[in-house]
Amino acid sequence: MINKLFRKKSVDQIIQDAHQGSGLAKVLGVRDLVSLGIAAIVGAGIFSTIGLASYEGGPAISLLFIFTAFACVFTALAYAQFASTVPVSGSAYTYAYVAFGELFAWIIGWALVLEYAVSNTVVAISWSQYFVSMLEGFGIHLPKWLCMAPGYAIDAHDKFLKEGVAALNVADKVGLEAYTTAPRIADIPIIFDFPAGLVTVLVTWLVYIGIKESQRASNIMVMIKIGIIVLVVLGGIFFIKPENWTPFAPNGLQGVMGSVAAVFFAFIGFDSISTTAEECKNPQRDLPRAMILCLIICTVLYVAITLVLTGMVNYTELNVKDPLAFVFKYVGFDRMAGIVSVTSVIAITSALLVYQLAQPRIWMTMSRDGLLSKKFARVHPKYKTPSYATIVTGIVVAIPSLFFKMDFFVDLTSVGTFFAFILVCAGVLYMDYAGLSARSKFRVPYINGKYLIGIGFIAAWVLILRYGQHILAEWQLLSIVDIAEHKSLVLVFWLVWAALAVMGFKYNFSLLPVIGILVNLYLMSELGASNWIIFIAWLFIGLVIYFGYGYRHSKLNVKANEHA
């Protein structure tokens, strides 16, 4: 049974299965892929979570964007090598099937379901906030109970009962209004985010009717998006007050790293490009180029926008859901705030579009391998899109976006993404070891890590022992229970680094994928324990489905039984 769980698919076999069962239209070029990548990356991150990150870490968040992009570069290189070797839809799921076998492939595919579904829920909720703000700019006021998650209203009502109206901020007062004015059934207030659910349905319909239509819409929206960001940067420069950048890191390194989830969420979209491999004209050439280009472009945009926002307004004022519009309202430039609100609605829609494109294609690939019902592999005869999987994706995203709070989802998204990124980087090491890299049209630049990985491990500990006395003192105060709850991933990080140093010496590992593994694992260790509990529960549900259906219906298992 162990052998069956880790059975692998060869590259030739995966490509052959894709050609036999696809039927998708090959219409995307490198420009379209870059556009889709920018659409996914420059989405809710820059229009929403960047405000929360700046509030927690101050202007120094701009450095965290650079550090996170640095982490993503190594992962992007690994993705690019896999994409040039296995030009098939499925993203990290397909790559794991080649490198680690079926069980790991299922785990990654299941984690990607969480990543894309949760990401799109965040994007839909963020879109709703900007849409409501835009309508108010035109004098149209939706009932408050019709445009927010019930959790916000309930929290505001509880705060009002405990602390009184004087303790409520602007957002709390809106939530309290929703609670008190909402219609009731059996004295239970009916509160939901109708715009978030509506936009999800409309975007799902667009994705359903064709990749070409989706690509055209994405290209137009990306042009508008880039235009508004450039406009915000150029317009905001004149309102910058350098004193707002002091202190640069008001909450220290802890405050900066505490925003890892919010910042990393901004970058996860680049892997969605790889899910369109079967719709690319030349995937082995264009996918690697597109991944690297969109990552560079988006990093520059993020750093510029962060410096402008924290320069215009003190970081303590940025804990809002629509920071780009807010800063111009704050400085009295209401007309610009209105323009930002209108164009932000269009810009965030493009991110929603790309995520809704990516999820069905992963399900389609898993279904072709027999791990999910055959319905998920169904391609519409007219529109040439995975029709059933697209509809299910719309339902899975629309329902949570109606009822859940956005901040619940941000950290949860990052857990699954880090997990997938680490396995993709590790997969490149396996490709080198198994000789598969010789087939890659794009390869991660090889730097022999035989000695460098171990030297880096020793150097890191020397620096900690010499300059990290406060870190060691903090550990001495922790009980075993505290370490297990809050620091277990830090221990895993050091153990993995030590293991990679030994294996790197033995097998001459390439240095860049190893750096990708370690940086992603370190960022993982900064996430809260509650997110890990939810993620582990999600994986448990996935394993139940796999052993209940996927293991028995797997095409590799069926073929093996027929052969026997």
UniProtKB/TrEMBL annotation:
Principal place of residence: membrane
Q: Which organism is it from?
A: Sphingobacterium suaedae
Q: Which InterPro entries match?
A: AA/rel_permease1, CAT_C
Query: Which Gene3D superfamilies does the record associate with it?
Result: Amino acid/polyamine transporter I (1.20.1740.10)
Q: What is this protein's record name?
A: Amino acid permease
Spans through the membrane: 33-55, 61-80, 188-208, 220-240, 252-270, 290-316, 336-358, 408-431, 451-468, 489-509, 529-549
- Which of UniProt's keywords are assigned here? Membrane, Transmembrane, Transmembrane helix, Transport
Per UniProt, subcellular location reads as: Membrane
Pfam annotation, one family: AA_permease_C
Q: Which domain of life is it from?
A: Bacteria
